[in-house]
Predict the structure.
Amino acid sequence: MQNIIVYSTPTCVYCNMAKSFFKANSFEYKDFNVATDLEKRKEMIDKTGQMGVPVIDINGTVVVGFDEAKIRATLGLK
């Protein structure tokens, strides 16, 4: 089972694309709205040094932005 965390904001187009990708491929994920969840925002920044979203953590591998090729490779998809 994959452990997927998505740090996102509600108005971010790429965040929504990432979440749609996971849903379409039947992957469960935890979504944290860093616009309102200050603790998770700090966690995201501490983990990556990034303030932009989405930040996606897949089993400890961090993907910044919706990089579908990297996400697929990390998940073992073609």
